[in-house]
Give the backbone structure.
Amino acid sequence: MPFVPGGFDRMALIGRRDRAEISYLQQSTRPGEPFWAFPNEPLLNFVADRPLPNRFGLGLFVVTRAQRFQLVEEVERSRPALAVLSLRTPTVDGIGSSKTLPEVAAYFQSHYASERAFGSLVAMRGTRR
C-alpha cells in the first residue's frame, strides 16, 4: 500500500472506477460528517475518511431484533444527510437485507430518496431533517 506523508493513501484500497464514487462522497460531506453506507460497506466511510453514523459497521453484525432497533436509533440520533445504497453488497445464503434487516431496511427506505446512481452505488439524501 502506498505511503504518503502522515499515513498511507486510502484511495489505493479501492479500484480505479470507485474513485469517482469516493470523491463524490467526500465532496458531499464535510470532514467529520458521517454518511450511512447501507447495508455492508464501511470501507466507503474509511476510504472517504468519514465516520460511521452508528456502531455497527456491517449489517451482518446486527443479529438480534434489539440490535436492529439500536442501529435505527443511532442513525436517527446522528441523522446523516447522505446515505449510500450498495448494489454489490454480498449476501449470506442469497438472503438480502430486506429479510435479514427488516426494521433497518424499512427505515432506510422511508427516510432516504435516490439522488444519484453511479457505478454500484446509489447516493441518497435524507427526506427529513
Q: What stands out?
A: The first helix runs from residue 19 to 28. The helical segments are 19-28, 42-48, 65-78, 97-100, 102-111.
